[in-house]
Write a structure and sequence with these properties.
two-stranded antiparallel ribbon, 19 helices, mainly alpha
């Protein structure tokens, strides 16, 4: 048992609520937003057993996971080292996610070229979501059991409280590996994010079949999603310094989020636009596209500045980069984007999210769920980061917050 119980997410009760409630949320949102309606005031009709679950969908999901697992082991791309662990050792990670994305899209294109009806994915969407949920539960149980076979030094501080439901949710083992595969690193960006892209492309294919061609808002939303995922995978090495990799164990929270929540919630805007085409003018779609570009520019520019600062000592030592020295010996960046707010990358992320939802119009609130969810997620993450840094840096963090007073949006929050 850990020496100190420092609960997050509402403690054991909050963990239990999310373990049981999040799968229900995924299914209800996708049931409420369907081909005939998309309203929170219209209780969805219950699906048939075949619509809710099918062996074909389960086999397809497991095959997809296995395919991505094989791609992750192809010896291409760079090999990066993570941050030092408690033992002082640094794990190595094969960063070939962008290649996996390209190969996945090529395979999808070949299937379309040979007239394979990829719209099957749209038909089996709910069953695929159910399969992802079941697989996430199975993987989480495996991870929880596996965590009792490793030494205490390999456990995550936050997921080793001794309270089973909480530890199951947060994740006990920090970096569970099977052979060369780091399961947390693999799941973080591969099956779910690339799966999100493939789901979107299936919706584009269905639009061609149903309407003759996809509407411009659908094309722009899918293009925005593809750019977002491609950018994440092109800069895959950057996630090695994120809270998910460095701090959180790999349990239900990340497993479910990566494999079920991300692909089957984040594609909601694209699926809505397939089932409910929006007749926007070129002026309106152009304005939204520009807003998305602005968000992406802020997101990428701020992340690049942070990554260069963390990995390039020459950049960190130049007079153009202003930093705050701390008693721990680390420097806190206080110039450029990071002088405007403590999380300018979150600001860009939120702007992009709302621009995607704007393509769906103003008649339905459900397609905006992702945007409001992301806003809440990133605000909560900023609070977690603030609490962690306050413990780590003490009074130096107080000085930093006076220099950079805004968490995400300058002069707002």
């Amino acid at each position: 048992m850990g020496s100190k119980k420092n609960f997050e997410f509402g403690g054991p009760l909050g963990a239990f609520s999310m373990v049981t409630g999040l799968p229900i949320a995924v299914l209800l949102l996708n049931l409420a937003c369907n081909k005939t309606s998309c309203s929170i005031f219209h209780f969805p009709s219950l699906p048939t057993v075949d619509e809710f679950f099918s062996v074909d969908a389960l086999v397809l999901f497991i095959s997809w996971f296995g395919f991505q697992l094989l791609l992750s082991m192809i010896p291409v791309g760079s090999v990066a080292k993570g941050l030092p662990l408690k033992s002082g050792h640094c794990l190595e990670y094969r960063c070939n996610g962008f290649s996996a994305l390209v190969l996945s899209v090529i395979v999808f294109g070949v299937l379309v070229l040979f007239n394979v009806r990829v719209g099957f994915v749209h038909d089996k969407f709910l069953a695929l979501a159910t399969s992802a949920i079941l697989f996430s539960f199975a993987l989480s149980i495996f991870l929880y059991v596996k965590s009792f076979t490793v030494s205490k030094i390999e456990l995550a501080d936050g997921g080793n409280t001794g309270v089973s439901v909480y530890d199951f949710f947060i994740g006990r083992e920090l970096n569970p590996r099977i052979g060369p595969v780091d399961l947390k690193f693999f799941c973080e960006l591969r099956p779910g994010l690339i799966g999100w892209v493939i789901l979107d492309l299936c919706f584009i294919s269905e639009a061609y079949r149903i309407y003759g061609q996809p509407a411009l808002p659908l094309v722009l939303v899918v293009a925005s999603h593809v750019l977002y995922v491609a950018d994440a995978l092109w800069h895959e090495e950057a996630i090695l310094t994120t809270m998910d990799i460095v701090h959180d164990g790999f349990g239900y929270m990340l497993a479910f989020g990566d494999l079920a929540w991300v692909p089957f919630i984040y594609c909601l805007q694209a699926r809505f636009l397939l089932e409910h085409p929006q007749p926007w003018t070129y002026y309106w779609t152009s304005a939204i596209a520009i807003l998305n570009v602005i968000g992406f520019f802020i997101f990428r520019a701020s992340n690049s500045q942070k990554n260069n600062f963390r990995t390039n000592r020459k950049v960190a030592s130049t007079s153009e980069v202003k930093t705050l020295a701390t008693a721990s010996g680390r420097q806190l960046l206080i110039s450029g984007w990071w002088g405007l707010s403590r999380h300018p990358n979150y600001m860009g992320d939120i702007i992009m999210a709302f621009s995607w939802s704007l393509f769906t119009g103003f008649q339905h609130i459900i397609p905006y769920f992702y945007s409001f969810f992301l806003l809440g997620l990133l605000v909560h993450r900023s609070l977690r980061d603030d609490a962690s840094c306050r413990r780590r840096y003490g009074s130096d963090w107080e000085r930093y917050c006076k220099i950079v007073p805004y968490r995400i949006f300058p002069y707002i929050y």
